[in-house]
Amino acid sequence: AVAVLGVGWVVEVVRYRSIRAACPGPTWTTPFGLGALVTMVLNPVPFWTRQAAYSRKGFSVNAMLGRFMVFVTDGDLCSRIFANLDDYILFAHPNARHLFGSENLIYMDQAEHKHFRSMLLPGVYSKEALACYLACQERACHEHLLRVAASGAEVDARLCLRLMNAT
Predict the structure, then answer these.
(1) Is 71:57 a contact under the CB 8 Å cutoff?
(2) In 3-state terms, what secondary structure has residue 152?
(3) Going by C-beta distance under 8 Å and a sequence separation of 6 or more, which residues neighbour residue 117?
(4) Best CA proximity match to 25, nearest among 68, 57, 60
(5) Percent over 90 (pLDDT), the chain
(6) What is the rounded distance in angstroms from the CA atom of residue 21 to the CA atom of residue 114?
(7) Are 137 and 167 in contact (CB under 8 A)?
(8) What is the CA radius of gyration of the chain?
(9) Whole-number mean pLDDT of the chain?
(10) Contact partners, residue 107, CB within 8 Å, separation at least 6
(11) For helices 34-42 and 44-54, angle between their N-to-C axes, nearest 10 degrees
(12) DSSP-assigned letter for residue 105
């Protein structure tokens, strides 16, 4: 049994390295990609920070549960990927379906997604709507920063901003 698991791990590492080639990302993965999954779930911020640090070319790669994963940070590259969704599979965070629901926009197929966006586009992204969003965001940020300043204690700015985004 141990030999079978060892051979499986070696096959997984060789497969990952051959697919990865010269792409930025970790040089090796833990057996069957479980390490990346465990790290992502238990400590997500450092995991995604490291993944972003690998992405000098606008993307980085990793393996999770035996699947090859591409993490994209470049807007143009992201647009090119989403323009060719027939060639790619969109895989959101493992908890995304529970958080957003299975009927969320990110899970719609191309035609349905484009139709839904075309219905939203005129009202959601108009100048008036964006001005309203800006005013609401400025007010929420200001109120949050005032609460933090009123505490009088030194606060890590990153934690402060994460808390602000969560509320």
Answers:
(1) no
(2) coil
(3) 105
(4) 60
(5) 2
(6) 34
(7) no
(8) 21
(9) 81
(10) 90, 92, 97
(11) 120
(12) G
pLDDT on residue 88: 65
pTM of the entire predicted model: 0.54
List, for residues 93-148, the tens digit of each pLDDT value.
767 777 788 788 777 777 887 888 888 878 887 888 888 889 898 998 899 888 88
Length of the chain in terms of residues written: 167
3-class secondary-structure state, position 107: helix
Cα–Cα distance measured from residue 146 to residue 16, given in angstroms and rounded to the nearest whole number: 48
Region for residue 21 given its phi and psi (left: phi exceeds 0; alpha: psi -120 to 50; beta: otherwise): left
Angle separating helix axes 127-151 and 157-166, nearest 10 degrees = 130
| Residue type present at position 113 | H
2 three-class SS: helix
What tokens does 119 get?
A: 């219905």
